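Input/output pair, single chain:
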Amino acid sequence: MIDFPHINMGEILCYKTNQFLAFNKPNGIPVQSKEGRSLHHFANAYAKRPLHLIHRIDQPVSGLVLFGRNAKAAASISEQFSLGQVQRKYFAVVADKPDVPEGSLHHFLVHNKKVNKSIVADTSDPEAKECRLDYRFLRSSESYHLIEISLETGRHHQVRAQLAEAGMFIKGDVKYGARRANKDRSIHLHAAEMQFRHPVSGEVIKLVAPCPDEVLWKALLE
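Output:
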């Protein structure tokens, strides 16, 4: 697991403006926690001021996380998320190569809060939320396969649930059907790119976060 107190926030900082900060979150650290040991906690300490959390990624997932430096900027970017105007790209390492090299997945998911898991549901379920993503197979190693994912919606555990339903189980994600957990309890899912409009200037901002410096990620990305 990540040794939280020794994270160098300057090293994982991806982008810094007067309006927002973007960090490349290591896997294993929560974005937010009641206990305080979280990316938000350390980001506040780095910025020397309370930051406004704009969105989240799961604790075992690595990649881009945004914080607003003021309420107005955070609200502007949050609205872009709500309206589906933020383009997001993920990379996932999966155990089974997809039968179709690229395509779209369309499901309805229900968040089961008791087990903190999203379940594929029937459209008639009043709690079901529509989820869409596009995927593309990139390359294979001896045992695993690299998938690129573009999100159209952003629901709880969406990528994990939808890929599992399609038979593409993310390495280490035993909650969603992977055969074995990773030793550090991470999963091989990374929030790699994000594009949105600057909350003041309106210019298009594209952020990129490198994948973890880990043997399998490096082998598949070479």
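The longest strand covers residues 129-140. The radius of gyration is 17 Å.
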